[in-house]
Amino acid sequence: MAEIHKIIVDSDTAGDDAAALILAARSKTVEILGVTVAAGNVSLEQAALNSMAALELAGCDAPVYLGATAPLSGEEKECFSVYGKDGMGEADIVHPKGKPREKHAVDFILETVRANPGEVEIVALGPVTNLALAIQKDRETMCKVKRIWSMGTAGFGPGNATPVAEFNVYKDAPAYKIMLELGVPVTILGLDMDDEPTWHDEKKLEEMKEGSEAQRFIATATRKLLEFKKGNGIAAVDLPDAVAMACICWPDFVEETTQCYGSCITEPGETYGMVIFYREGFTYDSMPKIGKCNVSVVSKAKKSEFVDRLNAVFKS
């Protein structure tokens, strides 16, 4: 019998986060304890609306909690949303019936971990400001998190916010550094794992528009992303957050992880937000010993199966 993961999803919900939430909500291997949101792709309030819309579509009543409105430093790193102003394709598809809970996201995270020590896993799909705030408020409790799954960093490839930095880390690099240094197990799914085999091409998206409610929802939510990608010469959309969620929901999806020491660059400059991975067992010329590894980086997965398996979930 597959392991049941008790998860908190921490997100800045736009189109790919919504796909991840639907996948999790329909999975038999995860139990969503709650969704905490932070500003990132979109504003805090919009991220909450998008989260609730995706959950309701999937028939899930998991509660949603409002968290950080800005990075730890209070200084915004300007990035435009490739998913449109509402994060969901600017197609007026976000009309949830529910409302966010009154409790702050950080308090929900801490109370849930205290009540379930060693059992709660956090799936971080956006900037990890909420996690960093929780660590600063009660590090002892956060050390009882079972595992953090992070859709963040460029992995072993190039970035998207800058040539070396991935969006989620770039939006709040100091928060990511705090998360890496917490000491609990961290599994990272970087941008390099969301390459061509995992993309929904334009033809597939057109087919989805004629499919189930969930397929239509995601095809519409990603239409602005498709416009952006086509401007870069790619007629397809990527769903990195859904790929990250697949690593948890599908026990056989991850085929290989690489143990590393991850170091996040927080100093201003061209490398801000870059996460450098020092691989276990590799001797670097200037450093014969790298010290204790703090992350497992997903380095191989059944990516060629992703699109068909995700659409099978959306059809269910």
Please characterize this protein's 3D structure.
- By secondary structure, this protein is an alpha/beta fold.
- It has a single domain (5-315), classed as Inosine-uridine Nucleoside N-ribohydrolase, Chain A (Alpha-Beta Complex).
- It contains 12 helices and 11 strands.
- The chain has helices at residues 15-25, 44-57, 105-115, 129-137, 139-142, 167-171, 173-180, 202-208, 213-221, 223-231, 240-249, 306-315, and strands at residues 5-11, 30-37, 64-66, 120-124, 147-151, 186-189, 200-201, 236-237, 254-264, 275-279, 295-301.
- The strands form 2 sheets. Strands 3-2-1-4-5-6-11-9-10 form a 9-stranded mixed beta sheet, with helices on both faces. A two-stranded antiparallel sheet has the order 7-8.
- Helix 3 (105-115) crosses helix 4.
- It is globular and about 55 Å long.
- The model has no long low-confidence stretch (mean pLDDT 94).
SSE arrangement:
Blueprint: E1 5-11, H1 15-25, E2 30-37, H2 44-57, E3 64-66, H3 105-115, E4 120-124, H4 129-137, H5 139-142, E5 147-151, H6 167-171, H7 173-180, E6 186-189, E7 200-201, H8 202-208, H9 213-221, H10 223-231, E8 236-237, H11 240-249, E9 254-264, E10 275-279, E11 295-301, H12 306-315
Parallel strand pairs: 1-2, 1-4, 2-3, 4-5, 5-6, 6-11
Antiparallel strand pairs: 7-8, 9-10, 9-11
Q: Which parts are unreliable, with pLDDT below 50 for 5 consecutive residues or more?
A: none
The CATH C-level name is: Alpha Beta
| Helix content bin | 25-40%
Instruction: Specify the CATH homologous superfamily.
Output: Ribonucleoside hydrolase-like
The number of distinct structural domains comes to 1
Order of helices and strands: EHEHEHEHHEHHEEHHHEHEEEH
Number of strands: 11
Residue share in β-strands: 15-25%
